[in-house]
Amino acid sequence: MDYPPPPSSALWSGQAPSPEKSSQILIREYPHRAIAIASSTHALILRHSPTTSEAIANGSLASVASARSRNTSFENATSKCMVEFSPTANKMLADYRPLTPRPIYGTLGLISIGRDVFLCVITQASRVATLRPGETVEKIEAVQFFCLNSAEYDDVVAIDPYDVDSDAASVYGQNLNRRDVPVEHPCLELQKLLGNGTFYYSTDFDVTNRMQDRPADAIAFDIDNFDESFLWNSYMIRPLVEFRSRLQQQDRNELDASRILTSAIRGFCRSWVIPQASAPLRSAKAGLPSYLTVISRLSCRRAGTRFNSRGIDDDGNVANFVETETTYWSPSGVVFSYAQVRGSVPVFWEQAAGLLPNQQKITITRSADGTQPAFDKHFAELEQAYGAVHVVNLLSATKPGELELTSLYRHGIQNCLLSLPGGTQMRDHALLRDTEFDFHAETKGPQGYEAANQIRRYIEDSADGFAYYLAQESDDAAADQNGRSSSPRNRRYVVVLQQEGVFRTNCLDCLDRTNLIQTIVSRMAVEAFLNHRGEAAPSDFWSRHAGLWADNGDSLSKIYAGTGALKSSFTRHGKMSIAGAIADVRKSATRLYYNNFADKARQNTIDTLLGRLVGQAPVILFDPISDYVAGELQRRSSEFSTNEKIRMWVGTFNLNGRTDGIDEDLTPWLCPSELGPVQPEIIAVGFQEIVELNPQQIMNSDPTRKQLWERAIKRTLDRNYNGVDDDKYVLLRSGQLVGAALCIFVKASVLHNIKNVEGSVRKTGLSGMAGNKGAVAIRLDYANTPICFVTAHLAAGFTNYDERNRDYATIDRGLRFQRNRGIGDHDSVIWFGDFNYRIGLGLEMAKELVRRRDLERLYENDQLNLQMVAGLAFRFYSEARISFMPTYKFDLGSDEYDSSEKARIPAWTDRILRKGTNLRQLCYNSAPLRFSDHRPVYATFECTVSIVNERLRDKISRDIYQRRKTEVGSDTANLVADDSDDEDLIGYDAIEPGLPPASSDRQKWWLENGKMPRSAISPPKPESTAYQTILNTKRPSNPYAPTDEPDWVNIPRSESRMSSFSSMSTSPYEHVNHSMLISASASTSAPRKLPPPYDPSALPAKVGRMQIGEDTPPPPPPRRQTAMVAGPGGSLVSTAMQPSRKPVNRPTPAPSASSGSVASQQTSKPKAPPPVARKPAHLVSPATSTSTISTPEAPYQDNPSLQHTELPRRPTANVHGSISNHDGSPSSLPYGDNSVREGGQATPQLPRRADSSASLITARRANPAAGAVGLVGLVDRDKRPQLVAHKAGSTGQKPPAPPAPRRAQVVDLLGDDGGMEMGSWEALKPS
């Protein structure tokens, strides 16, 4: 929300920072869009580099993006930018032009919105405070966001009220009138937030730390020491700070001196210049004024608006936590500082916004025992930062909600270790004390707000013990040799006294009452400081002090509640006037409007600024080593992360509005026998109809019933787990939506692992207006695993399953937690409740199946089962097998199903569903509790959670970074080089998950640091030295396909005589005389012929390509083996087997009938063809001129007088002869088209490649490698090839084509894509 700036009470109103604190922002459009922030000596240059996917979406990798649709949703991909910091020499910025006509005052950082990355710079600021000479604070009055990757928003600017020189002819306004539709800047809301006058920065000192925590005499500051609790631009500035940390020391000092990086706080800061006449301390330096300053730092840990941010979180951070420091500097060389804090009541509580003032209901969301760990953590951090803590609680003792908060607050303090005195000391000496001061009751009398000064007598002892911070200039630095005052840079301060404790003040909002009491505490501290020096302040000084605190209250109230503080009239003037009372009424009405209608949008903007939205992509400044570090961390994740298995019990029960079961024994449900001795870490209990759903109840939630059942559950758990080794359970959080309630209990010993507990509800009754139907959800982080529990009560009615589906969709999409986190943004999700899905059978049939306990038939007609199968509800959720009877509807107190007039059909309305790969369900059952018309259902789960040691992870990350930096060196990409390419500098990203990124000229994914690729897989040792182990080629190419084939097989070595027939089939249909083969192989003296050498230039263009449509990668090539073929004279010759190549599935043109002879084609080539595998003698078919070779319709008959049918040979010796032309000419066919070979012997016609989409798979499965002997039975009978013998001499006659349905898929093993292709021979099954 954009607030008007408060009236100034300082003397520097509107004064801009000094010129040496400013920079200039420049831009270069070509060849790459780059933005530079230039000081007088150095420049910080930033350039965005799109990933490959973004470049594809944009259409190119050009710096000026083409017109594209803006997607404002966050993407999980991080935005990478390149950055360079270098001196402005050698005309480095010659190609840049100014981006704004005025100077800028530093950058707040980088942020990504959708696909765009923006640089935020301060364009308008004014000095508002001087804590002491040389330490000034500026208020941010305007910022601008410039897009790094697109020029689309260059002319989309907000109207700057401070730019008096702007006009329509300016470079940014010239195109505004031409726009048909005005475009809203994506960062408009952020721009309004950062420019609303509540953000402050300083380039002189560390503004995030109080004076006591800074070096006393150091004006220069180190960015690394910033307190991120108060650094509001920490998310945006972090990439630049990390880049700074990687610079050399000299460059780092230059970057700090340039004042480019800016740290911003939020809250209030203002100084009063106290003239010498009104100063409480007299100074010998006449005429010099003193400075009185109030500076408030609002924490960003649990930042938010009034009703969106209440109470404490699991990390000990509280809402509206503010550190306020009062400082006073005197020219006499004295510096005084006093700090105090305010913050929300540190228990888990919420408050919904309402239209009636003071009627917003307070809801306690966690029990006192469950709150204690976070409570202790909060005060431990306060004690570490400030010392002893004195709590001043201003809540009312009569209002029920505030009284409940006070009782929980009191309980937490009493059980906190800090409140226990050490040794024999009294409780007054404890580190944690409290004072309950009912502000409204104390100021109700005739004195009015003046009675608030009574707080002094309650806290004066602690105030004296806490003291204050005091530093004083040393005598040797007070003046130089000539007696002149030394400059601020030469002053040296010595700490005299330190503050040793802090007051923590709170009311409900920590605004109005708190600010008034803190004003009194601040005055007490200043009075103590002056009294110790024997001085007193005049009334004018205290008037200025009260004015500063009134302005402070107004500013903090505007941030949190939307309006100025109430009671500010009394704070400012010391009395309450009628005008002040009327102003308070107006402010209260304005707050109601903001809290009900504007705060949600304000909260979303705050979460965006802090980088806390789910899925918000961070900006990464590219470092050549960062990607390597990220990959190494992922690979070594087991070193700093561990997995732990926890048990969870989940139960649901529709109570039918009854309370008579509260005193019953709930053990059969909460502690069933399936659990055994194991004690679950988490117990999630869901209730429906916890109250009667009448018209008076459906609009409100009465927590009384829920609290009764919470106590009943706690009693049952304590009764069953009361052993010595058993842990006690604590109520972590509960939530309620009229009749639906959800309670989460956890073991006390695991509370330290649980954080970020949040609750949310979603109404679905009466179109989302009523709470009779809907869901309650609670999410938590168990270590590093997010878990979500959802209990729901969906629409009733037998035929209303469509409405139930809509209810589920409404809850699944519309239920949101903080930071825009949804149900699906969790690793584990469990839905349970009364889903009201029925069984789609008649009453008699359903009861008969129930009587027969035919659960399978009942489940087949279950509506939820059918809707899940159809994908209409609960997609991707799973349910365990139901082994219990329907849980609805019973007569009260009995096991008989509904016998009333309505006669409802039995159904499983109460269900438990799960989603998450880390969940394993152990049981699923119902319990025999009979006081309701439903039966309770329960399930137990085993959940694997991840626990990350963040400290060890950071240490490993730093070690990897330093080691990698030593290996690679410190070379960086030159951003200003025109020939630099984004993809070469930053790297391509993978087009699919699991694939390596594409390679470039600079980097190759298969090489790392110039190392040769190596395989880490080694084959197992063979059983004998006569064998060797190779990959099993019979395994399916898809590695995920189920198979019984082993990965490796043993084959005889090549020097073994067994290797000559090792590739032959062992099928029972082939009878191979091994002894004959061995003797023939041993007796032959012919040398072994090898295939021609590999010549890649001779391969066709298509060799080695894979079709894009293939789903599975090619199998690894098998080891080259030898096979025996029949040679001349009947001798056996071994030939090398070539590894098979995947076929290219292309249609093959029909061969021409008139073809030249094969012999004539062979004689025209100078080289002999390579050896061709031949069919074994015992499998050769007789070739006659009148009959066809056996087909499945004509079974093969054994004939002892077989003639060898020689296979056709390749027409050419090189591979180019295998490429077919699609015109079907004779020269284009690999074998010619003659059916008659030399000598008049008929050539069997091979089947053509089938033009089928399944040919690829069929060929891969059915056909062995070329040259190998086929295995009998490995090809389907219906898909065996048919070989046709043609009549001798009939060269001009077209051979009869084989039947179309009987065509087989043949693998192309040699690369020819057309014509007739040669596949492997297949053995035919004998009759």
From TrEMBL:
A GO molecular-function annotation: phosphatidylinositol-3,5-bisphosphate 5-phosphatase activity
EC number from the UniProt entry: 3.1.3.36
Domain annotation SAC: ranges: 190-562
Protein localization: Cytoplasm
GO biological process assignments: phosphatidylinositol dephosphorylation; protein transport
GO CC annotation: cytoplasm; membrane
Region (Disordered): 1032-1052, 1106-1260
Family statement drawn from the similarity comment of this UniProt entry: Belongs to the synaptojanin family.
Annotated PANTHER family: INOSITOL 5-PHOSPHATASE (PTHR11200), PHOSPHOINOSITIDE 5-PHOSPHATASE (PTHR11200:SF257)
Protein name, as recorded: phosphoinositide 5-phosphatase
